[in-house]
Amino acid sequence: QYLIEARNLVKVYKLGEVEIEALRGVSLNVQEGELISVIGPSGSGKSTLMHILGCLDTPTSGEYLLEGVNVSKLSDYELSRVRNEKIGFVFQTFNLLSHLTVLENVLLPVQYNPNGDIKSATKRAYELLEKFGLKNRVRNRPTQLSGGEMQRVAIARALINNPKILFADEPTGNLDSKTGLEILKILKELHKEGMTEVIVTHDLNITRFTERIIKIKDGLIEGEEVNRVVYEVE
Ligand code: ADP
Ligand code: ADP
């Protein structure tokens, strides 16, 4: 059984009279433990696809099975439950809350987790922050951190609820190339520990570190490539 099974996803945005077909029939399977990149020009539908696969949004038509469960017609409430339990997100702009400390940011998803236990989550948050070299940053606010540190906090936050899959939308897009590689290295390590990951990027440099590359254009999958050599971050 696939972790992700998407069949013929269509997404139409309505802006008043205007309809934008962001996805025009996308089918995609992802196995547990895979490390995938999704590439394509701006406006090709990458974010839309990630939002659907990440249970932030539902398709206009088509089916999406997550761990065999059809989530394509869930209500917003049901969808948010699934998302909170199974999905972790990392964004280009980090999306940390500036009035909260690093630790509070990492613990944020636990508040929305009905199974969340703050005591064990706090322990896990410290472990994650230590793992990502942020032990002495716990009480800092995001504005006191570098870009790379902010993204590491965001990764810790994405992992706090033990998700099945991690989605990263241009995770290195706001970082210089050296820092970007540090982030990529962390994502690679998490993958080696078993995490399934989908990285959206238009940086061709990143795709060689992933096992499979999905190419999107004009709302369709234009092609797919399996990397015969998967690079490691030096
Ligand atoms: P990418 O991530 O590849 O840049 P997007 O999925 O963001 O592509 O966008 C695909 C198309 O859908 C674009 O034409 C974009 O303007 C449009 N679009 C994306 N999100 C929305 C939205 N929330 N409302 C209306 N149009 C949208
Ligand atoms: P990127 O291409 O870097 O992935 P976008 O600029 O396409 O990002 O989109 C940023 C956010 O704005 C996304 O969450 C997307 O859903 C939304 N968005 C994109 N295009 C539109 C649009 N035309 N109208 C409304 N929201 C949009």
From TrEMBL:
InterPro entries: AAA+_ATPase, ABC_transporter-like_ATP-bd, ABC_transporter-like_CS, ABC_transpr_LolD-like, MacB-like_ATP-bd, P-loop_NTPase
Keywords of this entry: ATP-binding, Nucleotide-binding, Transport
SMART domains xref list: AAA
CDD domains: ABC_MJ0796_LolCDE_FtsE
Gene Ontology cellular-component terms listed: membrane protein complex; plasma membrane
Residue ranges of every copy of the ABC transporter domain listed in the record: 4-234
Pfam families in alphabetical order: ABC_tran
Single GO MF descriptor: ATP hydrolysis activity
Family label: Belongs to the ABC transporter superfamily. Macrolide exporter (TC 3.A.1.122) family.
Protein name: ABC transporter ATP-binding protein
Species per Swiss-Prot/TrEMBL record: Caldisericum exile (strain DSM 21853 / NBRC 104410 / AZM16c01)
